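Board notes (copied after class):
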Amino acid sequence: MRSQSFAWATAAICIAVLGYWGISSGAKDCGTQAGIPAEKVADYMHAVLQSDRTFYTVNVVERLQAKGVVAASENWQSTNLLPLPAQFLQESNKLVGNTPTGIGYRLISLWPINKRNGGKNEFENRGLQETLKDPNHPYTEVVMNGQDAYLQAVYADKAISQACIGCHNAHPDSPKRDFKQNDVMGGMLISIPLKEVTPKAGSGAAGTHK
């Protein structure tokens, strides 16, 4: 219940950020105020998501494990344990998916423990490669989903705690087992609609490295 509350809080803040962007964008259309660029909204969302996940990792998972209260496990739903930090973000994204905002986010990697978390297309793989080379800047593209346009941004996801490092280095399905503190472990993919959208299957478009 406690971890679900954290996930709801993360989802709510991201929706609020997007709501402000939508209001500003609407004002721009009316000629009364300049809208916030979608790239800046993605930066805001990333800051919130990364801060919440770091807090959960350090002050919930690591703290409770160190005290012997409860551990985190990838099988948390069936074992009454805590979700792993990556699963915390995944559950938060599911909650956002139940809203009409059209936003989404997930973790991807060149070395995923779960193969489903690898890059799914050319943009995601290119974003992972670019942020590995330059982890201080996101890689962005405008992606078409049917008739709807999205800004997608990949941010470098670094090893922020021993819990993350230990899990990846010890997991039998991990293709890379020599991560160190602050190493780039993958990327956080954020997707933001550039206008009100109707969910559809689609394909990607050209992009830039910001």
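Comment from the instructor: Confidence is low (pLDDT under 50) at residues 23-33, 200-210. Strands lie at 104-108, 139-145, 148-158, 184-193, 207-209.
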